[in-house]
Amino acid sequence: MSTAPVFEIDLASFTADPYPTLARMRAQAPIAWVPQLNATLFVRRDDIHVHEKRIHVFSSEQPDGLMTQLMGENMMRKDGDAHMAERRALFPALSPRTVADHWKAIFRTDALAYIETLKPKGACDLVTEYAMPVSAMALKAITGLTQMTNIEMDSVSQAMIDGCANYAGIPEVQARCHAATALIDAHIGRMAQAPAPRSALAVMQAAGLSMESISANIKLVISGGQNEPRDAIAGTIWALLSHPEALSAIADGRATYADAFAEYARWMAPIGMSPRQVAQPDTINGIAFERGERVFFMFGSACRDEAHFTEPDRFDVLRNTQPAISFGAGPHFCAGAAAARCLIADIALPLAFQHLEGLRLSGDAPFSGWAFRGPLKMPVTWDA
User: Fold this and answer.
1) Is 156:184 a contact under the CB 8 Å cutoff?
2) How does 277-297 read in b/e, with b if 16+ C-beta sit within 10 Å?
3) pLDDT number for residue 217
4) What residue spans of the chain are helical by DSSP H?
5) CA 7, CA 18: separation in Å to the nearest integer?
6) What is the pLDDT of residues 299-328, one digit of tens each?
7) Per-residue pLDDT at 261
8) Mind listing the domains of the chain with CATH numbers?
């Protein structure tokens, strides 16, 4: 382990709400060894912004890491030329132009058709009955795995997310992850002969990637492309309904749904952490790191850093969110950021408020998670 000071956490409390603990760490031990996570955590924004780019020291290559073991070696677990080769292969499916010219209309058509079926109900759990299917429909289109059901897409994503955060080594969590990856491989096999144009499957095949790499990267797209948009759609709507002044700012043109999503992603980062492995010895701020150690860059903490955000624990759609690193800061900046912004800010949020008239909360919306965070449920009603 590094020579960083030891900072003990209560894992249950940290999972329920990591932000008070992260605030204490920023003040007392911004680089700290946390035995409960078996890793050294970086929690200040500027430290993460600098050191995430130093891939020669903090490498994404983790052959023994959970993601590699469970999902295969995808581009998130590669650096340098190997990473860029696979990123370039996937780019035609996720580029801002492809999103604007191709996916946006598909996202809107699917989401609008779905919300028309939802309107007469007058009530739902917004996580499972709106955010989940809207995210799943978009992800099925992007990946090319169009024969999956919405529930299958959501469940395999959740199983992989849980597996990659299973640092406690719970066997049942690992087993669910293995079952999910097997199901994804079966769907890839069904669609590989005639993949949908511009889908991730189609563009990676056209680029000549091996089926092993294609499989690993489609699993990566699913693990990041379902849970985070689902949680951000439901979470941003919850934040807006909980802060009527924010909805008023959007209504009178002082803010946009894009501002609301950017602020939510800063305030309640759906991706709270990115792991790295020390590739060579280094010393930072007097703390020595040895080869093979595990490091967590805590994006969720960086996005509430008092050095960059006034009253960081407050949701404010009028805030300048430019310093936030919700999508990462270095060469592994989220490849699907343009698709996520389009689906959430341009489609899912405005459709909900336009078509579910009088949308309002009807119960508690508990949140959970520190590596990945979102609402577990969100009961709402509207005027049907």
Assistant:
1) yes
2) bbbeebebeeeebeeebbbbb
3) 94
4) 11-16, 19-28, 45-51, 66-71, 80-94, 96-98, 104-118, 126, 132-143, 150-164, 171-191, 200-206, 211-225, 227-242, 244-251, 257-267, 299-302, 337-341, 349-355
5) 14
6) 999 999 999 999 999 999 999 999 999 988
7) 98
8) 11-381 (1.10.630.10)
